[in-house]
Design goal:
about 5% strand, two-stranded antiparallel sheet, mainly alpha, about 100 residues
Length: about 100
């Protein structure tokens, strides 16, 4: 008997585990570019009427650059981190 596939919402199935390598940078770049652009714009422009629309437009432009940059740099960053961190502890021991 087949186990039912987990769903996100309604009849939309969850992605297989191999997609995690794309989805983690996708959401991380989304959140970081939004937070950083919000802080920078508030700091430089202050709050004014129409701020949210202007910030959102700039956030989407920032994210369009942030996501591919994260995808390209992530393997390089992992190599640098592995100089300082024992990455073997992250993999489960083989039985």
């Amino acid at each position: 008997m087949n186990k039912p596939r987990p769903m996100i919402i309604g009849n939309i199935p969850k992605l297989p585990i191999k997609w995690a390598t794309i989805m983690i940078p996708f959401f991380l770049s989304f959140l970081m570019s939004g937070i950083i652009s919000l802080i920078n714009m508030l700091r430089n422009l202050g709050w004014y009427d129409g701020f949210i629309e202007f910030w959102f437009t700039n956030w989407m432009i920032s994210w369009a650059f942030a996501f591919p940059i994260v995808l390209v740099l992530l393997p390089w960053v992992r190599k640098i981190v592995s100089i300082f961190v024992d990455m073997q502890q992250m993999t489960p021991p083989k039985s």
